[in-house]
Amino acid sequence: MKKLFCMILATLALGAALQGCGAKTEAAPSAQPAETSETGAAESGITAEKAYEGVNNYCHERVDWSYAEEDPESMYVAMGEESETEYQVIFRSYTGSLTYFYVNKADGTTRMTTYVPTLDIEEDEGTIQINDYLK
Questions:
Q1: 57-113 pLDDT, tens per residue?
Q2: Mean pLDDT score of the chain, rounded to an integer?
Q3: How far is the C-alpha of 57 from the C-alpha of 82, rounded, in Å?
Q4: Which of 10, 82, 108, 121 is the most buried (most CB within 10 A)?
Q5: DSSP string of 36-103, one letter each residue
Q6: Domain locations in the chain?
Q7: Which H or E element spans position 121?
Q8: Residue 37 to residues 29, 34, 90, 134, Cα–Cα distance (Å)
């Protein structure tokens, strides 16, 4: 029983110390104008590729990826579901926590939530502007 308690306590401490991609909240700047095609119709400002690239860049800036060198499956960024208004991109930390990024297709405003499956804890982590992480 004591060993189980220590394991749970260690998991909580590690999860608190390494909150996926972090909880840094940044104010979202005003939306950038949508690009226009040759026909003049407005297109979506953010594509699925841009959403993935921005989240991937954000996570690589904020998290030490050396843990994934030996076991690449322990940390990754992957595309999730897509709705009419946003893309979902998922970051899995080596701790097992999942950070969900919901990228607004129109302006790139991205809200983040972290879920720790072993503890069934979910919390909002704030917002970022995905355009700030596109190269």
A1: 999 999 999 988 888 889 999 999 999 999 999 999 999 999 999 999 999 999 999
A2: 78
A3: 20
A4: 108
A5: B-TT--B--S--HHHHHHHHHHHHHHHS-TTHHHH-GGGSEEEEEEE-SSEEEEEEE-TTS-EEEEEE
A6: 2-25+37-133
A7: strand 121-129
A8: 24, 10, 30, 21
Whole-angstrom distance, CA of residue 106 vs CA of residue 46: 6
Q: Which residue has the tokens 């990754």?
A: 76
Best CA proximity match to 11, nearest among 129, 118, 120, 134: 118
What percent of the chain has a predicted confidence (pLDDT) above 90?
A: 60
Judged by DSSP in three states, 106 sits in coil
Give me the amino acid identity at 28: A
pTM summary value: 0.69
| Contact (CB, 8 A) for 105 and 44 | yes
Is the separation of the CB atoms in 128 and 51 below 8 Å? no
